[in-house]
């Protein structure tokens, strides 16, 4: 059976997974995800047309966001659950197409087959054959599609906390509808990619409002990596309301809750750090989970993307919730974590183990609270340059670049970081500059808006554009949330970004030349060489 997927950085041979996904995605699962995408083009078309007639459809709005997020790397690997998404999409399309006027695109005329084998055949054909013959058009179509997937992840997090903005839904539908167009131009697609970046800035803004409104502004916080004796639940992913619900349900039970991976910044929020049994942080970034979970007597809960194939030695201790799913792994619905708590108790839990400390909680409110100090430090030469070394972590050895970069950065430079790429260097003690820590963890990838706000505030303080600031962006990418953040940075006109560890396989040579010429994007090189160039 054939498949083709090149949406993430770890794609096979840097060109595309065509036998099975490096992430563990099987061809039959890839086929169903390709059908879902095709159905989303249809639903976007229907919803866009309905909106032009003044009719909104809340059910489609929410479904589109959740279904797009379900196809992000490392989210849903479960054939049966994906099949249900296909059935639901077909039902929604059936209701919506009654309002359509004029000829419809082929995605709307598509009907999913009834049997599994037929469905897989349909998905295989759609995935491999349903691409434009012009590689630049294809590249931009995929850039837009992956940008929409990333934006859906942020929109879903905001939606869960009740925050939304109708212009975001409207853009999802407009862009998905456009992706039905048989012969789009490069200019049209570039324009939509930049608008996707713009809409994502708005999406991240409402997500920031949702998080800070619900949990308070993050505060600089020391997080312990010590293991306390007793039953333990380790929470991975990004969903703070899931963590909050679990903390409430474990109060007084004797079960300690630890964060993992992208959940580390949760410790900075007043609304979460107030729980004394939020005991600390466990492990490092997502790609080390098989090694780190093996043999650990804890229950593991995945709230969003980042799940890897659980080893047989610990699969019985893994739980998923929300949109995450892995075949054979228990799924928790409606935030009833009773089964996770019972599992943690039955396992007995950790023995006491020494650990260290990690710092987090430098969101925009905390950093801008000391803006005067920071501005003075720049003016008097104590701070020469800021580096934003942020993005995803991953398994490739080339990612050691980011550790070396931070180690070699001169002592009069400040490193801001976010997302799980920080685990390459957040254990390093790189000191402070006049009381300002040299390493500032802004938060999750979901907190990228904080970095934008900090950069905008600095540019106002220095009365210059962001590109004139003593600030360089050194990004590591892995999946589609990083793609949409890159589109947001391009929309904001930010130039000379260093991107690694490798460039996206779906970017064609001509589109890469366009990005280099217009935005000065460059692949990472040797850490010292990049430092010398950026500081010259
Ligand atoms: S998500 Fe990444 S690793 Fe998984 S199949 Fe696609 S390209 Fe391959």
Keywords:
Substrate Binding Domain Of Dnak, Chain:A, Domain 2; 19 helices; alpha/beta; six-stranded parallel sheet; binds iron/sulfur cluster; globular; 536 residues; Rossmann fold
Brief sketch in words of this structure:
The chain has 536 residues and is of the alpha/beta class. 46% of the residues lie in helices and 12% in strands.
* Gross CATH architecture of the largest domain: Up-down Bundle
Residue windows where pLDDT falls under 50 for at least 5 positions: none
The share of residues in extended strands comes to 5-15%
Shape: globular
Bound molecules: iron/sulfur cluster
3D structure, described in words:
- It is a single chain.
- By secondary structure, the chain is α/β, with parallel strands linked by helices.
- The chain has 3 domains: 12-213, Up-down Bundle (Substrate Binding Domain Of Dnak, Chain:A, Domain 2), CATH 1.20.1270; 221-347, Rossmann fold, CATH 3.40.50.2030; 362-535, 3-Layer(aba) Sandwich (Rossmann fold).
- Helix content is 46%, strand content 12%.
- The chain has a 6-stranded parallel sheet. It has a 6-stranded parallel sheet with strand order 13-10-9-14-15-16. Strands 1-8 form a two-stranded antiparallel sheet.
- The structure holds iron/sulfur cluster.
- Iron/sulfur cluster is lined by residues 5-8, 10-11, 17, 21-23, 25, 73.
């Amino acid at each position: 059976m054939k498949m083709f997927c090149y949406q993430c950085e770890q794609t096979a041979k840097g060109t595309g997974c065509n036998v099975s996904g490096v992430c563990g995605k099987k061809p039959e699962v890839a086929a169903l995800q390709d059908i879902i995408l095709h159905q989303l083009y249809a639903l976007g078309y229907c919803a866009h047309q309905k909106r032009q007639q003044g009719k909104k459809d809340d059910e489609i709005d929410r479904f589109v966001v959740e279904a797009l997020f379900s196809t992000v790397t490392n989210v849903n690997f479960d054939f049966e659950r994906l099949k249900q998404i296909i059935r639901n999409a077909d039902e929604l399309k059936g209701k919506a197409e009654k309002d359509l006027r004029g000829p419809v695109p082929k995605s709307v005329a598509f009907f999913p087959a009834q049997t599994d084998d037929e469905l897989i055949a349909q998905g295989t054909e759609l995935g491999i054959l349903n691409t434009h013959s012009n590689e630049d058009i294809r590249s931009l179509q995929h850039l837009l599609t992956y940008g929409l997937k990333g934006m859906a992840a942020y929109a879903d997090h905001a939606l869960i906390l009740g925050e939304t903005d109708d212009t975001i839904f409207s853009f999802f539908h407009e862009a998905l509808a456009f992706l039905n167009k048989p012969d789009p131009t490069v200019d049209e697609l570039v324009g939509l990619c930049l608008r996707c970046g713009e809409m994502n800035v708005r999406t991240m803004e409402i997500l920031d409002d949702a998080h800070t409104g619900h949990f308070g502004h993050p505060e600089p916080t020391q997080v312990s990596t010590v293991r306390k004796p007793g039953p333990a639940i380790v929470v991975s992913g990004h969903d703070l309301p899931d963590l909050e619900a679990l903390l409430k349900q474990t109060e007084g039970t004797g079960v300690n809750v630890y964060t993992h991976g992208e959940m580390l910044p949760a410790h900075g929020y007043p609304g979460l750090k107030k729980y004394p049994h939020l005991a600390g942080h466990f492990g490092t970034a997502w790609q080390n989970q098989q090694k780190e979970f093996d043999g650990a007597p804890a229950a593991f809960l995945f709230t969003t993307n980042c799940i890897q194939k659980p080893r047989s030695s610990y699969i019985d201790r893994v739980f998923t919730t929300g949109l995450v799913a892995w075949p054979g792994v228990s799924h928790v619905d409606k935030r009833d974590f009773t089964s996770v708590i019972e599992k943690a108790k039955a396992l007995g839990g950790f023995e006491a183990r020494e650990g260290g400390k990690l710092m987090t909680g430098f969101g925009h409110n905390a950093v801008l609270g000391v803006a005067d100090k920071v501005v003075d430090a720049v003016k008097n030469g104590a701070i020469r340059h800021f580096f934003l070394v942020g993005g995803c972590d991953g398994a490739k050895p080339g990612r050691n670049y980011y550790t070396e970069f931070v180690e070699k950065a001169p002592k009069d430079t400040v490193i801001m970081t976010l997302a799980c790429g920080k685990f390459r260097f957040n254990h390093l003690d790189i000191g402070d500059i006049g009381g300002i820590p040299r390493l500032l963890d802004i938060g999750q990838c979901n907190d990228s808006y904080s970095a934008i706000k900090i950069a905008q505030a600095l540019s106002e303080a220095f009365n210059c554009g962001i590109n004139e600031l003593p600030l360089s962006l050194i990004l590591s990418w892995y999946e589609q949330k990083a793609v949409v953040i890159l589109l947001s940075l391009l929309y904001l006109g930010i130039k000379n970004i260093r991107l690694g560890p490798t460039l996206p396989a779906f970017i064609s040579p001509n589109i890469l030349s366009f990005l280099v010429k217009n935005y000065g994007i460059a692949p990472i090189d040797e850490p010292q060489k990049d430092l010398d160039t950026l500081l010259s």
